[in-house]
Amino acid sequence: MAHDWFRSWFDSPYYHKLYFERDEHEAAAFIDRLLSLLKLHPGSRLLDVACGRGRHARMLARHGYDVTGIDLAAESIAFARRFEDEHLHFYQHDMRELFFTNYFDAAFNFFTSFGYFRTAREHAAAIRTVRRSLKKEGIFVLDYLNVQYAEEHLVHRSVKVIDGVNYHLTKWVDATHFYKKIVIEDKKMTAPLVFTEKVAKFTLADFEKMFTREGMQIGGVYGDYMLKPYDSRNSPRLLMIAHLPAAAERKFIG
User: Please, how many CA atoms are within 13 Å of residue 140, restricted to the half-sphere of its CB?
Assistant: First the structure.
């Protein structure tokens, strides 16, 4: 079996330095806006799918919810567990495999933490396990890149310097995927580290099909972390709120 690129990259401290350590205020403000929109009941059980080191899970828990985070990366979960308490829990778990059943009021998948698998069956399995983890009135928030916007704004080469470490980024696309090669130069290392991300070009129509197959429908679509209306060309994000039939009467319009 070919190596899954995300297994090593998502467990690297450089991954978290590159993506997550400089926008805490923005992330917290987004969570505030999202929860205001969802109007979840006090004490609701929430699932953060592909939680990484638990940044969003901790923010959700601060609002008084019982939050569980799952992630494939062992080192990330070990870090997240430093923050566990009676209302915040973390498990190393693959989103493609069944977790709890009929347990959570809402599930979240943030920051394009999807689209990494090699086959359509694996992506379908991930949606299915989340659906099965939800109560009959449960909702699933999935935050993905917006394909058309990402293609039109692709910066093919760039360099970021973070804490004295150089990150050389090279991006390209083909008919079905986005790619990003990351070459990391750190004076502490004798040779550069190299990782290559690969993310599927899933559109809103693709997600509608995936959700429909699992008996869910999309009840709200937003285009950025300010929760502005989604526009296929101009929105940087594709943020969807899907629900099971029992939640059909709920409105997710800000």
Answer: 30
Q: For the chain, what is the radius of gyration of the CA atoms?
A: 18
For 1-10, write each residue's pLDDT tens digit: 346 888 888 8
- Per-domain residue ranges of the chain: 5-144+203-245, 150-197
Task: Provide the whole-model pTM.
Answer: 0.92
Quote the tokens at residue 88.
């915040």
Spatial separation of the C-alpha atoms in residues 203 and 206, rounded to whole Å: 5
> Class of the 5-144+203-245 domain?
alpha beta
Query: CA-CA distance, 107 to 127, in Å (whole number)?
Result: 11
pLDDT of 235 > 90? The answer is yes
Q: What is 57-104 written as a DSSP string?
A: HHHHHTTT-EEEEEES-HHHHHHHGGG-BTTEEEEE--TTS---SS-E
Tell me how crowded residue 135 is: count the other CB atoms within 10 A of its CB. Answer: 17
